[in-house]
Design goal:
Blueprint lengths: L11 E2 L1 E6 L4 H5 L6 E4 L4 E4 L8 E4 L2 E3 L5 H17 L3 E8 L5 H5 L11 H14 L4 E13 L2 E4 L8 E2 L1 E4 L2 E4 L5 E3 L2 H14 L2 E2 L7 E2 L2 E13 L5 E12 L6 H4 L4 H24 L12 H5 L8 E9 L6 H14 L3 E2 L11 H19 L9 E3 L5 E3 L2 H39 L5 H38 L5 H45 L5 H61 L2 H10 L1 E3 L4 E3 L7 H13 L3 H11 L9 H24 L13 E3 L5 E3 L1 H16 L5 H22 L2 H24 L1
Helix pairs in contact: 2-4, 4-5, 7-14, 10-12, 11-12, 17-18, 17-21, 18-20, 20-21
The protein binds adenosine-5'-triphosphate.
Pfam family, one: Kinesin
Family: Belongs to the TRAFAC class myosin-kinesin ATPase superfamily. Kinesin family.
InterPro entries: Kinesin-like_fam, Kinesin_motor_CS, Kinesin_motor_dom, Kinesin_motor_dom_sf, P-loop_NTPase
Length: 777
């Protein structure tokens, strides 16, 4: 992938702000030193361990110390981006930093507390307030919420949140297939969506944070707006706001994470290090490749980093000395991120917008309603001029007029329904009163009358339903009201001018400081030394200055070396983990997959770029799958799966046998017997089963005998087992998990996908609990 081009007219740098949280209770209790200082006016973060040490200074667009309030952070950082999103730009706000430094506090805060609510709830309020004061446009707002947990994308708003979703690419844009989105009409709606998703997010207590986010979350608000242009046509703009709360980078020794927690930590660090590589590549002029594809997070943030989005990064840090390495690392990456150039652009009249679909559907429903009522109900807002031409009215009038007209129509339809009832009642009575009419004829007329009445009622109900649908859809399309417009406009202008004023003030302070230091330099240069002694003093001062710089650079080099060392350690951990995984997979392949089948699978496997994984194309049409399916149809057979599992269910742990060997033996026997049955029945061509087992061998006379090597191994295992009289339950559980896990992989690779699904389902319902049960016993 080529690197985003830098420079150009409409390109702009990512805005970077730093926020340092206050000392935590534990840090105060442990009497930790505060090593972070901030100069808010200069936008500087100063890190100094002791007064003897040369301070490390970093400069950013904005810096916020422990006293910063949520409202100011929102107004200065997030508000400008939301304004842009309403104009049709894409915007991203993301929080980055070490675990426990306040990312979630900054992004969500305490949503119900007016002082402590974070960027997210404030953004919801602002979006709808802005819409309320815009009478020119019609808006449709929707929200989605996902998390990336252990490198898998999960929909936080879906009932099947456990389902992994896939990343896809269309017209150069990366999106998540099948992600749920909800149309929302108010900040309360949006908050409900957010709360629902947050409950589903992975959170865990660690030594560093009681509520540590174990996943990266992305909340996306899509705002589609439609406005009638001077050409009389409606023009659509689509802005997308991504609010990203990243999981924090962590050192496993500090978080004390173990088991699942440690695994999560490794994955979190891995995707964050890919994010850092992307940042480094984008800001290194020599680098021509950006590794977006190395993690799901960077693929999803591709447009926000070096793409067409207005992006703001908030880097969170802690103030205490024992986190200094992590703080410096965060500051370094944040400092690099300042140089990433994006090229934001307004998304005008894109294809496939939901607002266009809504508008078209409403028009269609209205036309249908009109047809029904024979032109009596015209809701399209179009009136016929004297020359017979249609005059299109401005949208806001249509809306107001429509609302009133809809209300009238609802009332009139209700009235008409009552009238129908009355009229038919009258007719019915008339028929019944006719004495000269025969009973048979009367009931025929009454039946006809009933049918007519039903028909008329049906039509009215259909019209009412259509009206209800139109009303429902129109309610989702949001408009501003003129009464709100003025008041809101003033409030917005005030906020804007406040933000601009603050920006100008900071700029002025920075320029003044720059000027001062330039003047000092100039004076120094112009200084005429009156004597040799003065010259000596001057030169000494200069040397001191240069020496300080040299020391700073030296320190910097030392820090960088430490960081590289840490990164290398992390990578080594990752390599070790991958090696373990690969070895386990090889073990399964060697033991359960016949060599020929393995080669065949390898030949057929293709790398799928879009899902970043290997696939077997058209696996459902492979020879054996079709044969198996045919055989199953013939037998209506669950027997294949059942038989296999009944055999495996008989697994029992005996005291004098190696558990794993016994399990594997039973699995192999079960599989072999089933495969042999299948082979006879449908002529399957499997490689002889001796290749599938390391414990058993086929002898010349065709009998299955135990392999002497394996018998010796078994004996050794038995001794080991006797030595450790009581094996810990967890070890047994792991083995049970392994056997069921291996079985699933094996079955998947040997049978049709439907058969595999069935077997896996069965394994989850029956075998797994049984295996766990064995362990508990
Ligand atoms: N600026 C702040 N003012 C007051 N309390 C804060 C601030 N920042 C963070 N905290 C508190 O510190 C704790 C950790 O914060 P938070 O959960 O937001 O960290 P995080 O960076 O999201 O951590 P993780 O990466 O583990 O999810 C919380 O109890 C939070 O309330």
């Amino acid at each position: 992938m080529s690197k985003a081009k830098q420079g150009g007219n409409n390109s702009e740098c990512i805005k970077v702000a730093i926020r340092c949280r206050p000392m935590s209770k534990n840090e105060i209790k442990d009497q930790r030193e505060q090593v972070v200082r901030m100069d808010i006016n200069k936008g500087e973060v100063i890190i100094q361990k002791s007064s003897e040490e040369i301070p490390k200074i970093f400069t950013f667009d904005r810096v916020y110390d422990q006293y910063a309030i949520q409202e100011n952070i929102f107004n200065e950082i997030a508000y400008p981006i939301i304004e842009n999103v309403l104009e049709g730009y894409n915007g991203t706000i993301f929080a980055y930093g070490q675990t426990g430094t306040g990312k979630t506090h900054t992004i969500s805060g305490l949503p119900k507390d007016p002082t402590h609510k974070g960027i997210m709830p404030r953004s919801f309020d602002t979006v709808f307030k802005s819409i309320e004061c815009d009478t020119k446009c019609q808006y449709l707002v929707r929200a989605s919420y996902l998390e990336i947990y252990n490198e898998e994308i999960r929909d936080l708003l879906s009932k099947n949140g456990q389902n992994k979703l896939e990343l896809k690419e269309k017209d150069g844009t990366v999106y998540v297939k099948d992600l749920s989105t909800f149309v929302v009409k108010s900040p309360e709606d949006m908050m409900e969506v957010f709360n629902e998703g947050t409950v589903n997010r992975h959170v865990r207590a660690t030594n560093m944070n009681d509520t540590s986010s174990r996943s990266h979350s992305i909340f996306t608000v899509t705002i589609e707006s439609s406005q009638i242009g001077p050409d009389g046509k409606s023009h659509i703009k689509v802005g997308k706001l991504n609010i990203v709360d990243l999981a924090g980078s962590e050192r496993l020794d500090k978080t004390g994470a173990q088991g699942e927690g440690a695994k999560e930590g490794i994955k979190i660090n891995l995707s964050l290090s890919t994010l850092c590589h992307v940042i480094s590549s984008l800001t290194d002029p020599k680098c021509t490749f950006v590794p977006y594809r190395d993690s799901k997070l960077t693929r999803l943030l591709q447009d926000s980093l070096g793409g067409n989005t207005k992006t703001c990064m908030i880097a969170n840090i802690g103030p205490a000395d024992y986190n200094i390495d992590e703080t410096l690392s965060t500051l370094r990456y944040a400092s690099r991120a300042k140089n990433i150039q994006n090229k934001p652009k307004i998304n005008e009249d894109p294809k496939d917008t939901m607002i266009r679909e809504f508008q078209d559907e409403i028009s269609r429903l209205k036309a249908e309603l009109e047809q029904f009522s024979g032109g009596k109900y015209n809701l399209n807002g179009a009136t016929v001029g004297p020359d017979g031409q249609q005059i299109i009215e401005v949208e806001k009038f249509i809306h107001v007029e429509n609302k009133e007209r809809m209300k009238q129509m609802e009332e009139s339809l209700e009235q008409e329904k009552l009238n129908i009832k009355k009229n038919f009642e009258k007719e019915r009575r008339k028929i019944q009163q006719q004495v000269e009419m025969a009973e048979e004829e009367k009931s025929k007329f009454l039946e006809e009358l009933k049918q007519r009445e039903d028909q008329a009622n049906k039509e009215k109900s259909k019209q009412q339903k259509l009206l209800k649908r139109i009303k429902n859809m129109e309610e989702k399309l949001l408009h501003g009201s003129e009464a709100m417009e003025k008041a809101m406009k003033q409030e917005q202008d005030l906020l804007k001018s406040k933000a601009e004023l603050e920006e100008k003030r900071i700029l002025q302070v920075r320029l003044e400081q720059e000027l001062k230091s330039k003047e000092e330099e100039k004076i120094n240069l112009e200084q005429r030394y009156s004597s040799q002694q003065d010259e000596l003093e001057g030169k000494k001062k200069e040397i001191d200055k240069i020496w300080k710089k040299v020391q700073m650079k030296k320190n910097e080099i030392g820090d960088l070396q430490d960081e590289i060392h840490r990164e290398r350690e992390d990578l080594m951990d990752r390599i070790r983990e991958l090696t373990r995984e690969i070895r386990q997979k090889h073990l399964i392949i060697d033991q359960f997959i016949p060599a020929q089948e393995y080669m065949r699978i390898e030949r057929r496997a293709e790398w799928a770029e879009d899902i970043n994984d290997w696939i077997i194309p058209n696996v459902e049409f492979t020879g054996n799958n079709i044969k198996i399916q045919k055989a199953k149809k013939k037998e209506g057979n669950n027997a294949f799966a059942n038989n296999l599992f009944e055999n495996i269910l008989n697994l029992e742990e005996s005291e004098d046998e190696d558990y794993e060997a016994a399990a594997t033996k039973r699995v192999n026997q079960a599989i072999n017997s089933i495969l042999n049955e299948e082979e006879e029945e449908v002529g399957l061509q499997f490689v002889p089963p001796e290749k599938q087992s390391v414990y058993f061998k086929y002898t010349d006379d065709g009998a299955v005998r135990e392999d002497p090597e394996q018998a010796a191994k078994k004996e050794k295992n038995k001794k080991k087992r006797l030595q450790s009289a009581k094996r810990p339950l967890t070890a047994k559980k792991k083995k049970a998990d392994m056997v069921t896990g291996d079985l699933i992989s094996m079955v998947q690779s040997m049978t049709s996908s439907q058969a595999a699904d069935k077997i896996i389902r069965k394994s989850k319902q029956v075998i797994y609990p049984k295996a766990q049960g064995l362990v508990q016993d």
